[in-house]
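Now for a chain:

_____
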Amino acid sequence: MPRCSGSKPDGTACERIVGASQSYCYSHDPTRASERRRAASKAGRARPNKEVQSIKGRLEDLADGVLLGTIDKADAAVVGQIWNTYLRAVSVELKVREQTELIERLEELEDALADKLQRGRYGA
């Protein structure tokens, strides 16, 4: 059975089995690099959403505790401020990721345009 021609990050050969007409597995196929990048980007965006959902649940529990009288209002106010700060940090992290992704995509488009213009000039 044919194996992937790629290398793992530690330099050892990839051991994944590939189809007879393929040289690389999904992880090492250079023609699928942009597809892998998009998939990783989507996965990266999912993490903050889970964090936000978790914090929303904790805030609900905090509010319920105050209403039921099981949590002191002053304690709840401080904890609420801490969670608010945490949410702002998550928001900033998400914005930085989005900007980084947009910059990478813009650079790819600029490179593709430059390549196209270069080929047009030299007739390649």
About this structure: Residues 33-122 form one domain. The mean pLDDT is 86. The longest helix spans residues 73-122. The CA atoms of residues 110 and 116 lie 10 Å apart.
